[in-house]
């Protein structure tokens, strides 16, 4: 009798949501990509800011071809659950193309590090909060410094997938 009572109480406790297991959100069918701003004391050029937002939108659309991509300030598409991706660049190191080309082995690397938030646009609830870093340390003729933004964008898109935030194709 005592075992049944304990089992019954455990079932009620778990069903009531007091157990602490957070229910995963339903996959989102639309993603709003906000422009990432530079944090205090970080000299992140405006063209890199717009380039980063474009890279994130492109990487998400490549990984999730059926997802609707919107930009900051655009209205949410009707009938779509909207995930907002936003962030603050906390570190930017422009790197040196000549060092990347001539020395290699990580010398002259470009680094873009950001605090990234994945937010339910309807409720404002933060679903994920991650510190991510994109790096360019090689490439044809030393690589392009903007490739660090592409590296960061790929990581953000992969988090949308691994966190099961965006509806798969």
- Give the overall shape, derived from the CA principal axes: globular
- The CATH topology turns out to be Rossmann fold
Question: Structural class given helices, strands, pairing?
Answer: alpha/beta
CATH architectural type: 3-Layer(aba) Sandwich
User: Low-confidence stretches at least 5 residues in length (pLDDT < 50)?
Assistant: 1-23, 139-143
Radius of gyration: 21 Å
Distance between the termini: 50 Å
Q: How would you characterize the largest beta sheet? A: 6 strands, mixed
Summarize the amount of helix as a percent range: 25-40%
Total separate domains: 1
Can you describe this structure?
- The chain has helices at 2-15, 46-63, 97-102, 147-162, and strands at 30-33, 37-38, 68-71, 82-93, 110-120, 126-136.
- Helix 2 (46-63) runs parallel beside helix 4.
- A hairpin with a 5-residue loop joins strand 5 (110-120) and strand 6.
- The protein has 169 residues and is α/β, with parallel strands linked by helices.
- The protein is 32% helix and 26% strand.
- It is built from four helices and six strands, in the order αββαββαββα.
Q: Helices and strands in order, then pairings?
A:
Blueprint: H1 2-15, E1 30-33, E2 37-38, H2 46-63, E3 68-71, E4 82-93, H3 97-102, E5 110-120, E6 126-136, H4 147-162
Parallel strand pairs: 1-3, 1-4, 2-4
Antiparallel strand pairs: 4-5, 5-6
Helix pairs in contact: 2-4
């Amino acid at each position: 009798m005592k075992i049944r009572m304990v089992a019954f109480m455990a079932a009620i406790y778990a069903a009531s949501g007091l157990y602490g297991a957070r229910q995963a959100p339903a996959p989102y069918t639309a993603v709003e990509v906000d422009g990432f701003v530079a944090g205090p004391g970080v000299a992140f050029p405006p063209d890199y800011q717009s380039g980063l937002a474009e890279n994130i939108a492109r990487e998400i659309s490549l990984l999730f071809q059926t997802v609707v991509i919107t930009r900051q300030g655009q209205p949410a598409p009707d009938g779509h659950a909207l995930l907002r991706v936003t962030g603050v660049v906390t570190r930017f190191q422009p790197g040196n193309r000549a060092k990347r080309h001539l020395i290699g082995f990580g010398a002259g690397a470009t680094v873009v590090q950001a605090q990234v938030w994945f937010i339910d646009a309807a409720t404002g609830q933060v679903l994920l909060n991650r510190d991510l870093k994109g790096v360019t340390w090689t490439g044809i003729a030393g690589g392009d410094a903007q490739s660090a933004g592409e590296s960061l964008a790929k990581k953000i898109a992969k988090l949308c997938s691994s966190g099961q935030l965006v509806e798969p194709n």
